[in-house]
Amino acid sequence: MGFIRLHTPIPGPRSRDLQRKREGAIPRGLQQAAPIYVASADGALIEDVDGNTFIDLAGGIGCLNTGHRPVAVTSAVQRQADRFMHVCAQVTLYESYLELAETMNRLTPGRFEKRTFFVNSGAEAVENAVKIARAYTKRSAILCFQDAFHGRTAMGMALTSKTHPYKAGFEPLPGEIYRIPYAYCYRCSYGKTYPQCGLHCATTAVEDFFRRLVAAEDVAAVIFEPILGEGGFVVPPPGFLAKLAATCAAQGIVVIADEVQSGMARTGTMFACERFGVEPDILITAKSLGGGLPLGAITGKAKIMDAANPGALGTTFGGNPISCAAALAALKVIDDQNLTARAEALGARFEHRARQWQERFPLVGDVRGLGAMCAIELVRDGDGRVPADLETKRIVAFCHEHGVLLISAGSFGNVIRLLMPLVITDPQLDEALDVLESAIESVCAV
């Protein structure tokens, strides 16, 4: 017997009842990808209120690299809850906050003195990273990228590329935000091909930006996701990030790496920047840092992080004692179980299957990823690369109906991304990929 066990149609009767209640209690703006309600979860499996068991390839959108309810994390949470649950770091600090800050200063790339400040989420971390960069440089402009996602707060929306559903209707957004194309080789904005392009997007394009749009001396920071998340798991070619970071550093521009989704062992190293040889001035983490609890962090060079005056940084619940305890335990799980190596193995296992799909199904236009941050981009006419957004929705729905939870991504809504817990077993992953293959086959047969 496999791991997927479906006792009812999906959604089941109890999930449907709860969905009807939802419509009268929760605003429609809070979208729900899968039409089920969870009763329990463990490792890489989720059971819904109707007793159906699903294999989880969404991982809470990247928050569960160490899996659902890892024993070490839940035990740490219970121990901390028995001691105290909240005091506010701005009133009185506690050892776990300090220990976690020291750990992040040690783990993040860069052989320089660092400081770390904790918040509640990735979006809040983005907001504070921009504040700190502006305080340090005394400049205002921020350079960001097409297809990027940096959150749903005001600054997060301004930095995010995709309009619907993230930004449209919420204007005006913060100003002094400027955007250029990312190194999306499958859909190059400049019509070029790597490596013959000579990294045009990191050289000539950036030089043109400083010449034609904003002077380099007015730019406070450049912010980038080493691998685009919501934008479709786009992996830049070798040399792109290193060249970009070097160019900006030479101009006194703070380099901010948003590793909210790509961090915490997801790509085969603790942070994706390590795969590209980049040591950012500021590195942002969240999602899987908390082992399933809300937590974000801003870690950066001491001289930059100390630029904000006392009292200028703050958050009531950021670095909550329970979240800090969970994070310390989650980091130990990553180390003890060597989840960086596991991410690499999972990515290779997925790529082997996905390359076969690419050969069989013209719908699978591109296979990409790094470690266990992997995806397929679906297109309608092969070389024409017309985004297959409707087909993507049908594949996702098929998977949900057949016991696999996954989510889509991409500015065109045509990318299926995998964010499975890194503790997923090979048989569990294989069973989930069997369902995904059946979904692709079903859509292609229509």
CATH homologous superfamily classification of the largest domain: Type I PLP-dependent aspartate aminotransferase-like (Major domain)
- Provide the helix percentage: 25-40%
* CATH topology name of the largest domain: Aspartate Aminotransferase, domain 2
- SSE order, as H and E? HEEEHHHEHEHEHEHEHEEHHHEEHEEEH
CATH class of the largest domain: Alpha Beta
- What is the CA-based Rg, rounded? 22 Å
Tell me the distance between the termini. 30 Å
Largest pleated sheet: 7 strands, mixed
Outline, from the CA principal axes? globular
Strand percentage, roughly? 15-25%
Total beta-strand segments: 15
Q: What is the residue-averaged pLDDT?
A: 96
Spatial strand order of the main sheet = 4-10-9-8-7-5-6
Tally of alpha and pi helices: 14
Number of domains: 2
Secondary structure class reads alpha/beta
How is this structure best described in words?
With 446 residues, the protein is α/β, with parallel strands linked by helices. It has 2 domains: 162 residues, Aspartate Aminotransferase, domain 1 (Alpha-Beta Complex); 266 residues, 3-Layer(aba) Sandwich (Aspartate Aminotransferase, domain 2), CATH 3.40.640.10. It is built from 14 helices and 15 strands. The strands form 3 sheets. It has a 7-stranded mixed β-sheet, with helices on both faces. Strands 1-2-3-13 form a 4-stranded mixed β-sheet. Strand 8, helix 9 and strand 9 form a beta-alpha-beta unit. The two termini are 30 Å apart. The mean pLDDT is 96.
What's this, in brief?
By secondary structure, this protein is of the alpha/beta class. The protein has helices at residues 13-23, 59-62, 71-83, 95-107, 122-137, 154-159, 204-212, 240-250, 273-276, 302-305, 321-336, 339-360, 389-401, 426-445; strands at 38-42, 45-48, 53-56, 114-119, 141-145, 177-180, 219-224, 254-258, 282-285, 296-301, 364-370, 373-378, 404-405, 407-409, 415-418. The protein has a 7-stranded mixed β-sheet with strand order 4-10-9-8-7-5-6, with helices on both faces. Strands 1-2-3-13 form a 4-stranded mixed β-sheet.
